[in-house]
């Protein structure tokens, strides 16, 4: 009542995350009690405060802020399922941007990276690795071909023929060639414009090989046990 009387808007029942964001956007410092409030704690960075009704709910907008350190992305859609899907896609996109910011290296997408690794490992298994040790290299090379093969099948292409063409291109040194996800045909990712963060690729391959090693280790342990009579 007293705040409204002095033309001061008070928001109550805010989430802690929202509270922190408002403080960052306006340059304020959060205090636990009104008695502890000092002049330097008050955020004066907000240019315009307004309340607008969207759908059936009211939203508070703090806009035209000076040097804001936080923002809100407002998503709108016809239903909850659509909004949830948009939310997940946006989250993925922001995570990709974050990964590129922390580790600014990109790999060609469309299965080009996996195909390049597969060809290199297969060649190394044949030429550089002697005896039984070449089989793990060949196994990983074959497993990496699953990604481009799946993309070809999803695009409605001929998996065997397209994969052979792609393998030939990579063997001749065209390592940026991958699969067009819509047509299922080989394309140069430099022209197609599909790139993926290196950090994600490294983590994916590392996790896959660690998982395979763990499963093989479990098999060895199981086969090494003797049955009790």
TrEMBL record:
Superkingdom, natural source: Eukaryota
This protein's name: T-complex protein 1 subunit gamma
């Amino acid at each position: 009542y007293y705040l409204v009387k002095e033309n001061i808007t008070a928001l109550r029942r805010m989430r802690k995350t929202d509270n922190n964001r408002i403080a960052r956007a306006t340059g304020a410092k959060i205090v636990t009690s009104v008695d502890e409030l000092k002049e330097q704690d008050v955020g004066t960075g907000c240019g315009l405060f307004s309340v607008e009704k969207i759908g059936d709910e009211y939203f508070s907008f703090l806009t035209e802020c000076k040097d804001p350190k936080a923002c809100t992305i407002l998503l709108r859609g016809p239903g909850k399922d659509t909004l949830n899907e948009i939310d997940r896609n946006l989250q993925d996109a922001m995570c990709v941007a974050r990964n590129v910011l922390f580790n600014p290296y990109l790999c060609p997408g469309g299965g080009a990276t996996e195909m390049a690794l597969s060809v290199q490992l297969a060649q190394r298994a044949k030429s550089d690795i002697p005896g039984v040790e070449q089989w793990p290299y060949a196994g990983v090379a074959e497993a990496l071909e699953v990604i481009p093969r799946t993309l070809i099948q999803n695009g409605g292409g001929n998996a065997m023929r397209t994969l052979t063409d792609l393998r030939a291109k990579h063997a001749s040194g065209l390592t940026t060639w991958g699969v067009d996800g819509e047509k299922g045909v080989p394309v140069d990712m430099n022209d197609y414009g599909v790139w993926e963060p290196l950090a994600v690729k490294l983590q994916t391959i590392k996790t896959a090989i660690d998982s395979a090693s763990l499963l093989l280790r479990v098999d060895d342990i199981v086969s090494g046990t003797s049955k009790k009579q």
